[in-house]
Write a structure and sequence with these properties.
Layout lengths: L1 H8 L4 E4 L10 H11 L4 E4 L9 H11 L3 E4 L10 H11 L4 E4 L8 H8 L9 E5 L18 E5 L1 H14 L1
Parallel strand pairs: 1-2, 2-3, 3-4
Antiparallel strand pairs: 5-6
Helix pairs in contact: 1-2, 5-6
């Protein structure tokens, strides 16, 4: 709750979060506690925790009723392309009441197929490429990575432009 309050106080106009119980149901109390702490109105997106819910169709309505306007999902698969059947079904049953946003593995190679198959109007992706770091570092410190070639992932501007171009032509 503290983070949500800090973001709101700093001027953020939206939050992305999702909280589940161990049984794969939405943790309504925990979500409501956060929502009360920021005193909606804010743009709210339920994150890919949605991909772990036990009942995605019923969870969709529950999330909408909590005040979320979007759900990020890979269709309960490793990527949105793999989960496109469920994503398509979710978009159909959402009836424009909540925006279902395909996420996970979305890039310039998958965007058009995902959009075309699911009927989605938005996409979420982190279109990145590995780039060699330009400085030497102590290679015994991994900084959370096991990449010993000193690569870092950065946004691939050309790939982003391709995805945006696909979206503009499609929508």
């Amino acid at each position: 709750m503290y983070d949500a309050e800090e973001f709101k106080n700093a001027g953020a106009d939206g939050l992305v979060f999702g909280i589940l119980k161990e049984d794969g149901t939405i943790n309504i109390k925990a979500c409501c506690d956060i929502l009360k702490s920021v005193n909606i109105p804010m743009h709210l997106t339920f994150n890919r925790a949605f991909d772990c819910v036990a009942d995605p169709i019923n969870s969709l309505d529950l999330i909408k009723n909590l005040g979320f306007s979007r759900i990020l999902t890979s269709g309960q698969k490793n990527s949105a392309l793999e989960g496109k059947d469920l994503i398509k079904q979710l978009i159909k049953v959402s009836d424009n009441g909540i925006i279902v946003v395909p996420a996970g593995g979305v890039n310039e190679d998958t965007a058009l197929e995902i959009l075309d198959y699911t009927g989605a109007k938005e996409l979420h992706g982190s279109v990145r490429k590995p780039v060699k770091q330009k400085f030497d570092r102590n290679s015994s410190i991994t900084m959370g990575s096991t990449d010993f070639d000193n690569n870092v992932l950065i946004t691939d501007v050309n790939a982003v432009k391709k995805v945006v171009s696909i979206l503009r032509k499609y929508i």
